[in-house]
Design brief:
By secondary structure, the chain is of the alpha+beta class. About 30% of the residues lie in helices and about 25% in strands. The chain has 8 helices and 14 strands. Strands 2, 3, 4, 5, 9, 10, 11 and 12 form an 8-stranded mixed sheet that branches. Keywords: Hydrolase, Magnesium, Manganese, Metal-binding.
């Protein structure tokens, strides 16, 4: 049977939401970036395992990403590539929201992997972000004592929105108490840059071929949330990173729904997508 069972309190909450007795929690805007590199056997993607202590998606292997910081919408951010308005059309969002999503995508990627999609000019990218001064800035961004706009301005850098590609749009099911309205992006690891084993919300990081990650999930070695599983499945069809970045994606909003199946409350998708077991 497809979907994820909702036992106990989750099942009761699902019934209450379906009946209208409980209102779903609002969803927060968020961005996720699939960082890709060319491996010996095809594209590899950078993934993090979230700490077991995290309130959301504990223990799951995920792509870098997180919530939009209100300061991500700052107009002072130097910008190169498709405009916020253009991104808004792609993701069906207003210009302010789109600006925040793109900035959050670049900021969170740097915070969680050390990869920075920005450069001294509209045609260049930072080549190395591994020094102690970069680490100090990364930690200040994570601690929110430094805004992304001030970080870029202090280093005289331009955000490169042209290095991002739109990939998907997922909204957390209504039964969850922590919900996110997440736009997925894809980007190639810039030449010269290296990811690093960063701390924070993750306790492990790995470069994985999409097919290998899916195999490990099927074997019960790793846990993948439905959006991650679906994204990896889509990525596994490509043999080279440029093919991924050149893909013509139609962005359709996906929100797994609550349904009662044979007397049991479940989270399902309309195509009866079979979620991987944890």
């Amino acid at each position: 049977m497809g979907g994820i069972p909702l036992p106990g309190e989750f099942g009761e909450r699902a019934r209450d939401i379906l009946s209208g007795r409980v209102a779903p929690a609002p969803s927060k805007d968020a961005a996720t970036v699939v960082v890709l590199r060319e491996g010996a056997a095809g594209p590899e993607t950078y993934m993090l395992r979230r700490k077991a202590s995290m309130a959301f998606a504990a223990g799951a292997y995920v792509f870098p990403g997180g919530s939009v910081d209100p300061r991500d919408t700052d107009h002072a951010i130097a910008w190169s590539g498709p405009s916020p308005a253009a991104w808004g059309e792609i993701f069906r969002a207003d210009e302010r929201t789109a600006r925040g999503l793109v900035c959050a995508a670049v900021r969170e990627t740097f915070e969680e992997s050390g990869v920075l999609l920005a450069g001294p000019s509209a045609e260049s990218v930072v080549a190395d972000t591994t020094g102690d001064d970069w680490e100090a800035d990364r930690l200040a961004l994570i601690g929110r004592s430094l805004s992304f706009a001030d970080f870029l301005a202090g280093r005289e850098l331009v955000l490169r929105s042209d290095l991002l590609r739109p990939w998907a749009h997922w909204i957390t099911p209504e039964v969850e108490t922590r919900r996110f309205d997440t736009r997925f992006f894809a980007a190639a690891l810039p030449p010269g840059q290296r990811t690093r084993d960063v701390g924070g919300e993750a306790d492990q990081v790995a470069w994985l071929r999409p097919a290998d990650a899916l195999d490990r999930a099927r074997a019960g070695e790793i846990f993948l949330m439905p959006p991650t599983h679906r994204t990896l499945t889509e990525l596994s069809a490509y043999e080279k990173v440029p093919e991924v970045l050149a893909a013509d994606r139609e962005i359709v909003t996906i929100m797994p729904r609550i349904a009662e199946v044979d007397g049991e409350m479940r989270i399902v998708l309309d195509d009866d997508y079979r979620f991987g077991a944890r």
